[in-house]
Amino acid sequence: MLNPLMIWLIIGAVLCSLEFIFPTAFMEFMLGLGAVAVAVIVYLIPSLNPNIQIFLWLLFSTIAIVSSRRFFTPKTSMRTLSDAADAETLTAIAPGEAGRVLYEGNSWRARCADETVTIDPHQTVYVLRREGTTLIVMPRHLLEP
């Protein structure tokens, strides 16, 4: 039968190796590092209670995951829009309400950036930005001199 040291080393090696097969932003790798850290503790204190070993693994893994997050840039839901961000309204957009626009061949939910302006259907609008699945637009005629 395997001793706890070998079990933790095998768990650590398997989890670290899984990161190469299933890339998940280093989650498995950090769990593997936690297991290797527990293996080191078990090597230094061979009579450590198995419940404490599991607690240490969870603790080390959590610390490793939390500390590794600062090295990754957060992905925002806002996508960069192209320079030519023209769209056409499919429905009227009432002040403060949402409507539909045709943008890049798809129908999008849209709101006007100026909540006092009404935009009629089949009007050309300029897409200012995207907030989730809603485009923030302005009528083209208000932006052109």
Can you put this structure into words, describing what you see?
This protein has 145 residues and is an alpha+beta fold. Helices cover 41% and strands 21% of the residues. It contains four helices and five strands. It has helices spanning 4-21, 27-44, 50-68, 140-143, and strands spanning 86-89, 98-103, 106-112, 124-131, 134-139. A five-stranded mixed barrel has the order 1-2-3-5-4. A hairpin with a 2-residue loop joins strand 4 and strand 5 (134-139). Helix 1 (4-21) packs antiparallel against helix 2 (27-44) and helix 2 crosses helix 3 (50-68). The chain is rod-shaped. The termini are far apart. The model is unreliable at 77-81 (pLDDT under 50).
* Strands, count: 5
- Give the oligomeric state: single chain
Point out poorly predicted stretches: 77-81
**What percentage of the residues does DSSP assign to strands (E)?**
15-25%
| Helix-strand sequence | HHHEEEEEH
Count up the helices.
4
Largest sheet: 5 strands, mixed, barrel
Percent of residues in helical segments?
Answer: 40-55%
* End-to-end CA span: 82 Å
The averaged pLDDT comes out at: 86
| Shape summary | rod-shaped
Q: If you compute it from the alpha carbons, what radius of gyration comes out, rounded to the nearest whole angstrom? A: 27 Å
